[in-house]
Design brief:
Chain lengths: 141, 141
């Protein structure tokens, strides 16, 4: 599903943007740190919203109401628009609260992002995107 | 609606990401160049999809089916997560094909982005987001 060139592009771009929509189709989009393992993309939840319960985060409420999501990983270059490129990943998201996959995903996120190593993530959910479709545009190499 | 600090953050971040959703709530997200004039955010269409008609671009088909959109402008810093921040703008999008607002938007986009100055944009539509809601997170300063 993802080529070697895709993985190299992904490795060089530590931020993706995650788009969700609520049950009425109202979109929401935020930057996310992420890892891809096989055909799954994982995003950590690393903090609590003001209301206290992480499940109240809009991204999680949207996924619970409508699990379809899209993620974009892109490259911008001020000076050379021939070098622009992006990779869009779409599929169905699940919220994982515990278990083996939850641990594997958090370990991989800690490996990729140093700041996660000192955060107490264990009790917080992980978003798992089951990638169904990959769209490439421009210079993804 | 947008503060001076917001405008300064916007000026330093030339790429935003535009999330749309189709009539069934399936999200789509792409990177976009943009300008903000008053309470409107404008995005140029600068190329044609393979099928030839720019209206066939998924972002435009989604807006025609469901005009609700979200745009994120964010800052990432590998080394210092205390500096992360974002601005999310949400509202209703319109597709503008011609007229005064179309010309003003394309002029502003050409002023901000040098590559647009040598592109034939005039016959291509512009997306206008009527900003209704601004959400700020983290260090937007």
């Amino acid at each position: 599903m993802l080529s070697e060139a895709d993985h190299s592009f992904i490795a060089r771009h530590p931020v993706a943007r995650l788009a969700t929509a609520d049950a009425l189709g109202e979109p929401h989009v935020i930057p996310v740190c992420y890892v891809i393992l096989g055909s799954n993309l994982y995003v950590a939840i690393d903090g609590k919203p003001k209301s206290g319960d992480p499940r109240n985060l809009k991204r999680l409420r949207n996924i619970a109401a409508n699990p379809r999501v899209a993620v974009i990983i892109d490259h911008y270059d001020d000076d050379d628009w021939d070098r622009l490129g992006w990779l869009m990943l779409r599929g169905t998201a699940e919220i994982i609260d515990r278990g083996e996959e939850h641990g594997v995903a958090q370990n991989a996120l800690r490996q990729r992002y140093v700041p996660y190593r000192s955060m107490a993530l264990e009790a917080l959910p992980v978003i798992a995107l089951r990638i169904e479709r990959v769209v490439r545009w421009g210079n993804v190499g």
